[in-house]
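so my prof wants the structure for this chain in the tokens format not the other one, which i didnt know existed until like an hour ago. anyway here's the sequence
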Amino acid sequence: MKHFYKYALLMCCQFSTLYCFGQSDGTNYPQLEEVYNQIIPYPQEVSSGGQYASGKSFHIEGTPYISSQDFVYGDITINGQRFEHIILNYDVEKDQLVTYHPNTYQRIILDAKKVQFFTMENNRSFASLDANPGYIWHRNGYYEVLWDDEICFLAKHYKISKIKKDFGADNKQFEFEHHEHYFIRKGDRIHRINTKKDVAEILGMPKKEIKRIIRAKGLQYKKNTPECLVAIGDFYTNKFNKN
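here's what i got, hopefully its the right format
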């Protein structure tokens, strides 16, 4: 990591020299930007995180990541700038977004205070929320965006380790248990939702309308909560809220 920072400093000095030279001879900024990208081709905001400790959860069955140990290509928005085709994985246990350093190939943690959005496989989108008062699993504030149009349905994923139910084993074994909590962001407020009744009350919709929407899609709220919320969000945005 030290070698990377020395290299980056050297490259920045070289870029500064080019910039000063460009100012004197009339070179425009796009040309300088092109030279900079040739010298330092990797986005520095993506390459400047702390090292990720990846070995602590290996004794637990399952994965601390959202779905798989495998890293995938995704996009990130950091401080308003979008970076595409970045190798990513989301550690749900620690609520950390992880990537690989392009030079050292070490796993590094992206700064949650700078990350605003990221997408992963299957077009799954995540947003970083500044706060969710009273919610103990908020942590770094990464939430999956299920629906975002006039209202926003969010899912908070988290994993905990528990003792595996294996009565034949002599030693205790642990496994990851995946949980989700769901929220509606309406205006400036975030509301926790547990039941269809919560959704109906917050959106001001008849409960029977909520049931009708879910039934029409062949879904069950407890078993297919994300899909149900997407269907409700679509109806609320395109039909109910237009009346």
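also thought this was worth mentioning. The helical segments are 2-25, 29-39, 196-203, 207-216, 225-238.
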